[in-house]
Hints:
The structure holds two protein chains of two kinds.
Chain A (H helix, E strand, L loop, with lengths): L2 H17 L3 E2 L5 E3 H8 L1 H6 L2 E4 L3 E5 L4 H11 L4 E10 L16 E10 L5 H13 L5 E6 H9 L5 H9 L4 H12 L20 H14 L7 H11 L2 E3 H14 L4 H16 L8 E3 L13 E6 L10 E5 L3 H5 L9 E6 L1 H7 L9
Parallel strand pairs in A: 1-5, 7-9
Antiparallel strand pairs in A: 2-4, 3-4, 5-6, 6-12, 7-10, 8-9, 10-11, 11-12
Helix pairs in contact in A: 1-14, 5-12, 7-8, 11-12
Chain B lengths: L1 E6 L2 H13 L3 E4 L8 E4 L4 E6 L4 H7 L4 E5 H7 L7 E6 L5 E8 L8 H15 L3 E5 L2 H10 L5 E5 L15 E6 L3 H5 L2 E3 L6 E3 L1 E6 L5 H10 L3
Parallel strand pairs in B: 1-4, 1-5, 8-9, 8-10
Antiparallel strand pairs in B: 2-3, 5-13, 6-13, 7-10, 7-11, 7-12
Amino acid sequence: xxxxxxxxxxxxxxxxxxxxxxxxxxxxxxxxxxxxxxxxxxxxxxxxxxxxxxxxxxxxxxxxxxxxxxxxxxxxxxxxxxxxxxxxxxxxxxxxxxxxxxxxxxxxxxxxxxxxxxxxxxxxxxxxxxxxxxxxxxxxxxxxxxxxxxxxxxxxxxxxxxxxxxxxxxxxxxxxxxxxxxxxxxxxxxxxxxxxxxxxxxxxxxxxxxxxxxxxxxxxxxxxxxxxxxxxxxxxxxxxxxxxxxxxxxxxxxxxxxxxxxxxxxxxxxxxxxxxxxxxxxxxxxxxxxxxxxxxxxxxxxxxxxxxxxxxxxxxxxxxxxxxxxxxxxxxxxxxxxxxxxxxxxxxxxxxxxxxxxxx
Amino acid sequence: xxxxxxxxxxxxxxxxxxxxxxxxxxxxxxxxxxxxxxxxxxxxxxxxxxxxxxxxxxxxxxxxxxxxxxxxxxxxxxxxxxxxxxxxxxxxxxxxxxxxxxxxxxxxxxxxxxxxxxxxxxxxxxxxxxxxxxxxxxxxxxxxxxxxxxxxxxxxxxxxxxxxxxxxxxxxxxxxxxxxxxxxxxxxxxxxxxxxxxxxxxxxxxxxxxxxxxxxxxxxxxxxx
Lengths: 360, 225
C-alpha cells in the first residue's frame, strides 16, 4: 500500500483543518519518555518504542501527538488556539497468543486538530469538523461524555475515600464494578495480623498505617443503597441514537439531580450540531464510550468507525481533555480547556473512499 | 533429519534425558561434559542439539530446530503470538514453577491483588512516581496486570537477584519464578494470594517454521504422543 497515497490523504485532511482556522505544528519525533510513561503507565511502554540517549536519557518515538501539542501550547500559546498536524506515530503491535493474519502497521499517519478555548461551543466545533471531513466515508459516529459519568459518581452518598476510589477506577470497568459491589454490601471488618517480618522497602510504616486506618473507618460505613447502584448501572448502559439517549438521560436526571447540568450541556451540544446541519439521530450515544478510551478524556468523547471492520481501531477519535494540562504539571496545577482528535489517513485509504467533504 | 533442542545443563537436562529414556529414546552428551554435542540412540534420523533453555524459544521460532524442550514461561514471554510459532506436544511433568507477584511480608494490609491495586494508587500519590515491580517477565506481567485492570505501577528490569531489589529500594514488589518460595521468605517477601500469573513446566514443543511435520509426527508417535 502506497505511503505516498496515504500522505496525500493526510495532506487533504490537513488542508481541511487549516481551512478551519488551525495553525500547523510539527512536534518532535523523539519525545522524552518520562512524561509519557508517567501519564500512560505501562500500557504505553508495551506499545511505544523506547530508546536510550546518553545525554537526554530515555526517549520515545512519538506514540501520540496530544502530549507534545499540549506542552507546546502551555509554553507559548494564547487562547483561543487551534492547532493541526500530520505525521507518523509509532506503536508496537504485540500479538498476544496468536499472530493475526493481517497485523496492524507499526508506524502510521495521524492527522489531528486540537482546540484550546473557553468557548462552550468548542465540543460542537470539533465534532462537526471531523464529521464534515469524514462525511463521504459513511462512518458510524459515536459519542459519550465522561463528565456525565463522573458527576453521577460524585453524586453517590459515599465517603470521600470511597468516591475517590470509584472515580479513579472509572476507566477500568471490572475494577469499578467490583468496588461498587463492595460498597453496596455491608462492610466487613478486616484484621491485620502482625507479620513478624522486618520492615523492608520504600513504602513506609506510616503509609501502611494510614491505609489501615482508612480501611477501619471504611468498615463503619453504611452500605450504598441499592437504588443508587441501579441508577448508576442504568446510566452506564445507555446506548441509543443521541436524541433518544438524551430523553433517557433527562429521565435519569430526575433521580440523579447532579447530572442535570451535564445533560443540559449535552442538549446544547446536540442542538449546536443540528444547527451545523448534522443529523444527530444518526449519532450513536454510548454513555460508557469514554471508559474504553485513554484515561485523560474527561468530557465529551467521540469516534468514527467503519461498519463491518470491527477488528479495526476507529478511523477517527477524540474528545475533551481539560485536566491533561494539570496532570502534565507545567500549568501550575490549573486545567486548560481543550478538545481535539485525530484521523488515521491509512484507514481512510484502506476504505478506498472518496475523501473529504467541503474545504478539500 | 529431525533436530531436537534440549537444555544443555543442570537438572532440566537430566530430567529431559530421563523423560525420553522412559519412552525408549536414549539421549546423551557426546564425549566430555563440556562438549555441547549429543547422541541419540533408539531413534533414526534424530539429532540432539544442546542449547541454553533461554535460547530454545528463539530457535523454535526461527525453525532451526524441529522440536525443543523448554519452560512454558520462556515460550510465552519470549515469543509474541507464540501459538502461531510453536505447538505444545506434551507437558513433561517436571520443571514446575509459578510466576508470582510478591510484596514485602511486612505489608500487613496487602493480601489480595485488590489490596495491591489500591496500595499502588496510594504509593503513586505519596511518592510522585509509580510503584515499581522488578521482573524479567515483562510481557507476561504486563499482560496479566492489564487483564486484571491494575494501573499505577511500572516495571523495572531485573535479570537476576530480583528478590533483593525491594531491600535495595530499587523496587517495591517483584514478579518472578518460584518453586519452593524459599528465596522469597529469606528476602522477607510474600506472595499475593490467588492464582499465579502463570504455572510453568517443561514442555516438548514443535516448531511450525521448521516444517517436516510428517517426520516429526512419526517421532512423536514413537514417544507415545
